[in-house]
Amino acid sequence: MTPDELARYWYWVPDDYLNIHGAVGIHVYDLMTFMALIGGVAIWWWMVRSCPAGLKKKAFTLLVISLIAVVSARVFHILFYDLQTYLERPHLICRFGIGRSIHGVVAGFIIGAIVGARMLKVSIESMARSLSLWPLFGLAAARVGNFFNSEQVGTPSDVPWAVRFYYAWDHGHIPRHPVQLYEALWALLLAVVLAVLLYQKRRSGWLVPSLCLIGWSAGRFVTDFCRHAPGHLFGDILSTGQVLSIPFFLLGLYLLWCTLRFSKSALPDT
Q1: Domain presence at residue 245
Q2: Global confidence as pTM
Q3: Cβ pair 213, 248 in contact under 8 A
């Protein structure tokens, strides 16, 4: 591609826009993650406001759920994305600031919904509903942070909105899909739809949690076709992220079927 052709595409250098030098991407990533945390906590607290449990018990339950999600995110990354590195350098396992998987976060929230329901003595489905928006906010925030960090970049593309990432390994010589923004926008759109359902009190059964799982996993599966994926399974057909998305999609379909098939969820509430 000639210099004149490259000049047609957006050349993304975060320092030029924020006038901040150094680890600007890390700062933005941390800020976005913190905002998602605050938003998720606020929604969860509002959803469980009618729970008779005391303030301290709710706070402790929230802490337990958060720890489960963080540990699960780390475990998924180690097992499915970089196992060989951690086998050779096991001391890196405890470095929680690097290497987290969104699939692990979602799996952690699923486990956290079960544990949290037992702790607060509420139904599992009500706890799952209260947690449904949290991973979507976290995903959107993480992807915006990835965009600033020039991480998780897309495949080469000549679409008009392709981006040249200065901090990517090719230093912006190849226009690429801004796949981080694709996934962030999809997560936010899905979160808005689910928030409307919650606000309208359409909380029958597992409707909101199932739509969360289906929408998020389907979006991840599709956007990974435009992502420079870190690993592939089954040859070069599917990325690791796409393969990991399939069980969550199937679980979402099952929960949706339970909601549509029965007036009350077929799964245990307590």
Answers
A1: no
A2: 0.85
A3: yes
